[in-house]
Design goal:
The complex is a heterotrimer of chains A (541), B (263) and C (187).
Chain A (H helix, E strand, L loop, with lengths): L4 H28 L10 H36 L6 H23 L13 E2 L2 H31 L7 H32 L5 E3 H34 L7 H14 L16 H13 L1 H21 L17 H24 L1 H7 L3 H31 L6 H27 L20 H28 L30 H24 L4 E3 L1 E2 L5
Parallel strand pairs in A: 1-4
Antiparallel strand pairs in A: 2-3
Helix pairs in contact in A: 1-2, 1-3, 1-12, 1-14, 2-3, 2-4, 2-5, 2-6, 3-4, 4-5, 5-6, 5-7, 6-9, 6-12, 6-15, 7-9, 7-15, 10-12, 10-13, 12-13, 13-14
Chain B lengths: L11 H27 L9 H9 L2 E3 L27 H10 L4 H4 L17 H13 L7 H6 L3 H13 L16 H4 L11 H4 L16 H13 L11 H4 L4 H12 L3
Chain C lengths: L3 H39 L8 E3 L17 E4 L5 E8 L2 E3 L2 E5 L4 E7 L4 E4 L6 E4 L3 E7 L5 E6 L12 E7 L1 H10 L8
Parallel strand pairs in C: 3-6, 5-11
Antiparallel strand pairs in C: 1-9, 2-3, 3-4, 6-9, 7-8, 10-11
Classes of the chains: A mainly alpha (541), B mainly alpha (263), C alpha+beta (187).
């Protein structure tokens, strides 16, 4: 039974509100740097927009979704009110205030450093302080997840932790640890310089700290999506989850292996040794494993539901699935985009193949497909599924939901597929303007235009999404009942301690972080001669 | 729930997971730090320890041997972003006194009637650098060189501080209606020309790039041509020569007249 | 109606199918990593072998990256070393000239912020981080002109940072090298 509905709704409403703003910025960015735009504008506006768009979409939006969904799971799966309600609200306000504190200087053009804020470029300190506040707010959520689980385990010794909660806490621990990298970079390197206490900074070390966060953060974004795959989808389509144990193993694998692989973002960087690049490459290969397991389990779960509805044949059962159900549609679209995005990820993970597309538009296309596509479409599904339980009103416009999801899927394909293509052609990323009249750039013009059109389709889909939710405010009251999760096909009464707790996995996560990051970080910290002068950005200094 | 302890070698979950993790980590480390570096002949490693150190990323300073030296003087100044942005009142005062000599050409308020550059309101780092370059010979000018040669480092800092403190006076040529030419707003990326304002302060500031607004068009034009032909070479690592040599004469003209009309 | 026995059989079947998939997945991942390792040794490019430092503030004062030492240098063993710096908002040399079919070592660093460079039409791609020297062994198979944009956000003028690479045949390069010690194709 959901008790703290206002808390959860606050997180989701703020998340989708900032998402809407960032979506508009994103569509503008796609348009303004495409051949469709003839207006010669101040390039700083573009970089300002990219900073805002990236910071919101990367740091604020998914964090709020994970937090809100996490509180909902805690109350529903553990069937008791959230412990630490006041702290949860404090966390929410920290995130909200942090987002505002960060976005004010960005909007004024004082911190156009992009959401990756690669020093020695340094902007206004309020931007970084805002980001820190957001992270601290989310760490309150991490602590609450742990505390709530511990209390439940004390009251329910020897019982299996409900899968949704297990995965939720796994995600929170992963986030808690991965955020440390960027936090170290901001607090100990960037803020002293931004505040004028120091004037030099080691750019290489900063990039290593940031890479600690940069990869695993995408798994933090991914976990709510995977929770939806495992815990919502089978139930929503009237089926059972194929395997509970395999689900737990997948989330455990994410906790252990998502972390120590960030250096694959630094393959072409000169400050990290080739040996560590290889080690990170090996573990990056391993992180494909939980996704392969998940795809199998979810497809198998879908098959169960289909055959229960009378689906026949080796492949014919697919047509017997409840395609009218928005959750079915969203999950199917998500898996398709996950397939393509994941394949792209396998390319990025190999040093040799990465060399061709590093920092080209392929990279931007890749993470929009996998995050904006596969992950975010499930955020929509989560919202559609959870909303009636939070608002006490039914969401009625199933047709509109389906249209919204179709448009998101089509829009994402139209946006990202040409985007990958121009990356292969070598188009560099993060430029406010391209001279499409030049022979070197003109072959890319048509694809960039297509991506811009895709951006507008996504914008329409985003508007429809918000429309569905807002219209729900005026719908008739309807009692949605308790929020339930999927039930596995075979649920053992007892499961091994290893699949019911986190001590071992956290130890491995931290241990691997030390092995894979310890020396590179220590070496660069000790090196004094690579502290380079800060370059302050933002006119008005 | 199994009542077996989790952290015990007898627990198969523990032993398998830790075992597999350790094995993979050890193999990856051995391969990455020893096998792969030694398998690449062009790395010229002197043994296993050298291989491990190189692959781990133990840093070395880059070698200086055999560098070709220039047969002309280049700028000696080290530019950083925050250089001279906060001059003291004492420095400005001293600079005011010293600047009386400069007023003949550069005007009593740092705004010149001749085509010497206006110095009023110029970034202190810029003025300091140019004086330095005149003194060392990185930049040569028949009139400026003798002045600069006699200045001490503190003199140059003070004069620069003083001029940065003076207000930029709107010029008689100010004309807000001149539309910004494309070369200024957009540059010409494929010719490696960024918008001028990216460095020169209208959009953002790069240390050492002078503020151009209100500057004499004749002066701007002359400097751009000097950079383009290579006659002027005190731009560190060719950063202005790279741009100027790609500009057409017409674009240089447009830029000069546009900036003269700006505040 | 399923009985306890049926349930047990079903569970065993499900577990068996799952184990097969897990094995297959592990094999797939192993193959991918193994392929990358093998190709890395035998055929393709590898990350740079050493970490080297250089002070961006004084690049123009002394050392390897002074202005007059930048450009393409013919070494005694017939290979070519290209030295370049990236700065806001151009590469120096703005136009890099190299011979085809010759081992070329590209050495570059940044004079200010993080830049990157890629040469379109090739897989030559590296970051330039101030404080560190990037080194890349490359080889151009065909002659021609290529563009070399900066691929990392380096400030408000990033979109203007496009350099050029000109690949000439070996004979022509030798002729150029006879006249000057450091070559560029800047006008």
């Amino acid at each position: 039974m959901l008790i703290n509905k206002r808390l959860i709704l606050a997180h989701f409403w703020l998340a989708f509100a900032v998402f809407g703003v960032a979506l508009v910025l994103g569509a503008w960015q796609m348009f303004v740097r495409s051949p469709l735009n003839a207006w010669h504008f101040n390039p700083e506006l573009y970089y300002r927009s990219v900073t805002a768009h990236g910071s919101i979409m990367g740091y604020v939006f998914p964090t709020l979704v994970a937090m809100g969904f996490g509180y909902a799971i805690t109350e529903s799966a553990l069937e008791k009110p959230l412990i630490g309600r006041r702290w949860a609200w404090a966390g929410f306000w920290l995130v909200a205030v942090g987002a505002v504190v960060a976005m004010v200087p960005v909007s004024l053009g004082w911190a156009s450093v992009l959401y990756t804020f690669y020093p020695p470029m340094v902007g206004n300190p309020l931007y970084y302080i805002g980001v820190v506040l957001v992270v601290v707010g989310s760490w309150i959520w991490v602590a609450l997840m742990s505390i709530n689980l511990a209390a439940w385990k004390r009251d329910n010794p020897d019982k299996p932790v409900p899968l949704a909660m297990f995965a939720n806490v796994a995600g929170s621990y992963l986030w808690g640890w991965t955020a440390v990298g960027a936090a170290l970079e901001i607090i100990f390197q960037i803020l002293p310089v931004a505040l004028g206490l120091r004037s030099t900074i080691d750019a290489g070390l900063a990039r290593v700290f940031f890479s600690w966060t940069l990869h695993a953060i995408v798994y933090f974004w991914l976990i709510p999506t995977y929770i939806a795959y495992y815990s919502i989808f089978p139930r929503a389509i009237g089926g059972r989850l194929y395997s509970d144990a395999m689900a737990r193993i997948s989330f455990i694998l994410f906790v252990v292996v998502a972390m120590p692989i960030g250096v694959h973002h630094l393959f072409t960087d000169p400050q990290v040794g080739a040996g560590f690049k290889f080690m990170h490459s090996v573990f990056t290969g391993l992180v494909a494993l939980p996704t392969l397991l998940t795809v199998f389990t979810i497809c198998a779960s879908a098959e169960i539901a289909s055959r229960l509805r009378g689906g026949r044949g080796a492949f014919g059962w697919v047509s017997a699935l409840p395609w009218q159900n928005p959750i079915m549609l969203a999950t199917a679209f998500s898996l398709v985009m996950l397939g393509f995005g994941g394949a792209g990820g396998l390319i990025n993970m190999s040093y040799q193949l990465d060399a061709s597309i590093h920092n080209t538009q392929w990279i931007t296309g890749h993470f929009h497909l996998i995050f904006g596509g596969a992950i975010v479409i499930m955020y929509f599904a989560i919202a559609y599924d959870l909303w009636p339980h939070l608002t006490g009103r039914a969401l009625e416009s199933f047709g509109l939901m389906r249209t919204q999801l179709w448009l998101w899927f089509i829009g994402m394909i139209v946006t990202t597929f040409p985007w990958h293509y121009v990356g292969i052609l070598g188009m560099p990323r993060r430029m406010a303007f391209y001279d499409y009249s030049n022979a070197a750039v003109s072959p890319q013009a048509f694809s960039v235009t297509m991506s811009a059109v895709g951006g507008f389709i996504l914008l329409i889909s985003g508007v429809l999404f918000l429309t569905v939710l807002i219209r729900g405010q005026w719908a008739a009251s309807s009692e949605a009942g308790a929020y339930r999760f999927s039930v596995p096909l075979h649920m053992p009464a007892r499961i091994p301690a290893a699949l019911n707790s986190f001590g071992l996995w956290l130890a491995l996560m931290i241990g691997l972080t030390v092995v894979n990051y310890g020396y590179p970080i220590a070496q660069l910290m000790v090196l004094k001669e690579t502290n380079v002068p800060a370059v302050y950005v933002g006119a008005g200094r | 729930m199994s009542d077996q302890k989790l952290f015990s070698l007898r627990n198969p979950w523990f032993s398998t997971s830790v075992g597999v993790t350790v094995v993979i980590a050890v193999l990856a480390t051995l391969a990455g730090l020893i096998w792969l570096p030694l398998a690449q002949p062009d790395l010229k490693l002197s043994g296993i320890w050298d291989a491990i150190c190189s692959a781990a990323g133990v840093p070395r300073a880059s070698s200086q041997a055999g560098s070709v030296q220039a047969d002309f003087k280049t700028s000696d100044v080290v530019m950083t972003s925050e250089m001279l942005t906060r001059p003291s009142q004492v420095s400005i005062g001293r600079g005011a006194t010293l600047a009386q000599r400069c007023a003949i050409c550069h005007g009593p308020q740092g705004v010149s009637d001749a085509n010497s550059p206006n110095l009023a309101g110029q970034f202190a780092a810029v003025t300091y650098k140019e004086l330095n370059d005149f003194k060392t010979g990185a930049r040569v000018n028949v009139i400026m060189t003798p002045f600069a040669v006699n200045m001490t480092n503190q003199d140059m800092l003070d004069v620069a501080a003083y001029y940065s403190y003076l207000p930029r006076v709107p010029r008689s040529h100010a004309d807000a209606k001149i539309p910004a030419p494309l070369i200024v707003t957009t540059g010409a990326p494929m010719r490696n020309i960024a918008p001028c304002g990216s460095c020169h302060g209208d959009i953002d500031t790069k240390a050492g790039s002078p503020w151009l607004g209100g500057q004499s068009a004749v002066y701007i034009k002359a400097q751009l041509h000097a950079f383009a032909s290579g006659t002027r070479r005190n731009d560190i690592s060719q950063q202005m020569r790279n741009i100027a040599r790609q500009m057409t004469a017409e674009e240089i003209d447009q830029v000069a007249h546009y900036y003269e009309a700006q505040p | 109606m399923t009985t306890e026995a049926d349930h047990g059989i079903g569970e065993a079947v499900a577990a068996r199918i799952e184990r097969r998939w897990v094995t297959l997945s592990i094999v797939i991942v192993g193959l991918l990593v193994g392929m990358a390792t093998y190709i890395g040794i035998h055929q393709a490019t590898m990350p740079q072998g050493h970490v080297e430092t250089a002070d961006p503030k004084t690049l123009h004062l002394s050392g390897e990256f002074v202005e007059s030492n930048l450009g393409s240098a013919l070494e005694t063993d017939g290979s070519v070393t290209v030295r370049a710096i990236g700065q806001q908002y151009s590469f120096t040399p703005q136009c890099v000239v190299v011979p085809s079919d010759t081992p070329v070592k590209l050495r570059a660093t940044s004079a200010d912020v993080v830049h990157g460079l890629l040469i379109e039409g090739t897989n030559i791609n590296t970051m330039l981080v101030p404080g560190y020297v990037s080194e890349l062994p490359v080889r151009f198979r065909t002659t021609g002109d290529f563009v070399m944009p900066c691929q990392e956000f380096c400030g408000v003028g990033h979109q203007g940072m496009w350099g050029k690479v000109r690949v000439v045949d070996q004979a022509e390069f030798q002729k150029l090298a006879a006249a000057r010690r450091r070559l560029t194709c800047v006008d």
